[in-house]
Amino acid sequence: MDLDVFVTAHRAEWERLDALLKRGRRLSGDEADELVALYQRTATHLSLIQSSAPDPLLTARLTQLVARARAAVTGTRRASWRDAVRFLTAGFPAAVYRTRHWWIPTAILSTLLAAVIGWWIGTNPEVQASIAAPQELRELTRPGGGYEAYYSSHPATSFAAQVWTNNAQAAAMCLVLGAFLCVPVLWILFLNMLNLGVGIGLMASAGRLDTFLGLILPHGLLELTAVFVAAGTGLRLGWTVVDPGPRTRRAALAQQGRAAIGMAIGLALVLFVSGVIEGFVTPSGLPTWARIAIGIAAELAFLAYVYILGGRAARAGEQGDLDESDQSAELPTAA
Known about the structure:
Blueprint: H1 3-22, H2 29-52, H3 56-74, H4 81-98, H5 100-122, H6 125-131, H7 134-141, H8 146-149, H9 156-177, H10 183-205, H11 209-242, H12 249-281, H13 288-315
Helix pairs in contact: 1-2, 1-3, 2-3, 4-12, 4-13, 5-10, 5-11, 9-10, 9-11, 9-12, 10-11, 11-12, 11-13, 12-13
């Protein structure tokens, strides 16, 4: 492409579009139609320049012009309570439902890994000795020891807030770092399963596995499910880098990235519920069966929320993404 010839041929259109935009709402019907047509042509011009003859100054100018034109054509709107309700009843559960083929295998494999690590530690005294001295291990696993005292070490409110913050950060890291070809997500998952496996192995070796499960299950079912959902979404985002499908890599990453941001908000709410259970239910004086029953009820409620509301929304076409009118314009790709 001869850039000078191209600019000479289309400068008048760009200047006319700029002039129409400066007039704001004072446009006749014909001028409004003209603005839309010029916006579409200018977007195509920008795509051609970016792909055939990239020029930083011209690209910046046309990008700004196209953005202004799009705002004028589509308008702007403010988020409302209706958006929040739609997100909670359709967008978020549909996004979780659509990624189930990623987070369910992630959950199964991760749980098996934690069980294997726990079995390996619990049946090998030499491995236990490499973790800590015998006296330290007894202090951790005895009645009222480190594992049990952890859940009552702080006031329930501050403990729940701390747990929620830590878990939300872990989930956010899985979502954000997934774009780096999945490796950071796998490492975060491994560390979480390693910590869980160590607890299972040490408490099992002390003959107190039932006590440990009674402490973990009330909040851990929902907490780990949220982590698995975040990890599965992060892995899906990472795989999009490898295989974007029929779309451009940029467009595919943009869609998955927007869905991941929405997932982070939704999972923060799920982890808030888990944190409340961990802060108030896990260390409570309720019988073990009652605490575990609360954890199971919370987990079943979340799965029903995903599979009933989310499944229905997904089948209706909900993607867990922004409305099309709120998405950035995807420029045509030059052949």
